[in-house]
Structures are given as structure tokens and as C-alpha cells.
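Consortium newsletter contribution from the modelling node. Members have asked for a concrete example of what our holo predictions look like. Here is one, prepared for the adenosine monophosphate complex that several groups have been discussing at recent meetings.
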Amino acid sequence: MRLILVGPPGAGKGTQAARLVAKYNIPQLSTGDMLRAAVAAETPIGLKAKAVMDAGGLVSDDIVVGIIRDRIAEQDALGGFILDGFPRTIAQADALAEMLAGKGLEIDAVIELRVDQTKLVDRIMKRADEARANGQPVRKDDDPEVFKDRLAAYNKDTAVVIPYYEQKGLLTVVDGMQPIDEVSATVEAVLSKLDEVSSSV
Ligand code: AMP
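And here is the predicted structure:
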């Protein structure tokens, strides 16, 4: 199964992806996590990406497409993957389609976690409070002001991938404001329907 999770920052993509990893035994590929790891390791990519990420902007398409191209060629991703945080632009979506088509593969489904954006800032502040309470570092981009910039970047750039996948008949919208377990149940229902369709073809 090759799946994309879309939704604004704080919509719960990471949480849902982690659950799908356990259920389908395929990796979650988060460009945000990979970029943060590159920043922490001070790799050349990390050094380039750091300032943009700290400011809540988008890292260049070339960099993230390169990261994904390498990552999906790894052994654990050959049988499928869940993309979280990628693609974020039409150029990335086109590059993804192209790199998969080159291997005779395609995306099976795109799930949009739709949320009330006015409630997201509260949610993100809670995430920062929880991290602090657990003695974990608070992500710099979870600062409310930076978060608002990330939301604006999502609405300006990333939201365009939604009609892109809708046009391709790949999009399913799930209400991300439901409690976490209900979101998971809805996502799993969508995917098991897909499984049925693909196994009946
Ligand atoms: P995330 O954890 O997905 O919210 O990503 C954190 C930050 O990493 C974003 O605010 C961007 O600066 C950068 N980033 C992650 N994925 C991408 C992507 N697909 N394209 C461009 N920048 C990205």
C-alpha cells in the first residue's frame, strides 16, 4: 500500500501514520522527521534546510524530492509506505508520480485529515506543553507565531495538492476533529475498502 496523508500541521498526520505503520507493517516516511534528523546531524542538507525550517517556510523541492527518491528505494519501503508531510507542492507531487511510474508503481490513496484551523493553534500549544511536561524538547516550529506561518504556508502552497489528487480520484476526506481513535477507525475503514477493491480486481 502506497499512501499519502495530507492535512495542515497539527492535524494528527504523524499520530495516524504511526498507527498505520503498526497495522500494515510499512514505514512512515516523514520529510519533516528526515529533515530534522539532517539538521541535528549537521549534514550539508541539514545546514541548508535549518534556517528555512526555523522560519516555518518550505525547503526547496529539489532537496525534499531527492530525500524521498533515496528513501523509497530502501528495502523496507519496497512493499509500500505512508508519506507524511510530502508532497507539499504540485512540483513535488509530479516528481513523486514520475519516480513511481518509473518503477511501474503508483499511489493507492490520499487521505486528507480535515480540521478546523482555528482550533489548531490550541492543539499545537498543548503539544508543546506535553513535550515540556515529559522533559522533551519543544519543537522550535511549534512556537505559536511560527506555527501560524506554517499554517499560512500550508494554505498557500500545500493545500493545492488536495484538488490535484481529487482530480485523479485518489482523495478521501476524513474528519480530523474526531477523537484520535475515531479518526483511526475511519482511516482504517477507508483503507480496508481499498484492499477489498484491489483484491477483487
Ligand atoms: P513537518 O514536521 O512535516 O511539519 O515539517 C517541518 C518542516 O520541515 C516544514 O515546516 C518545512 O520547513 C520542512 N518540510 C517538511 N516536509 C517538507 C516538504 N515536503 N517540502 C518542503 N519543506 C518540507
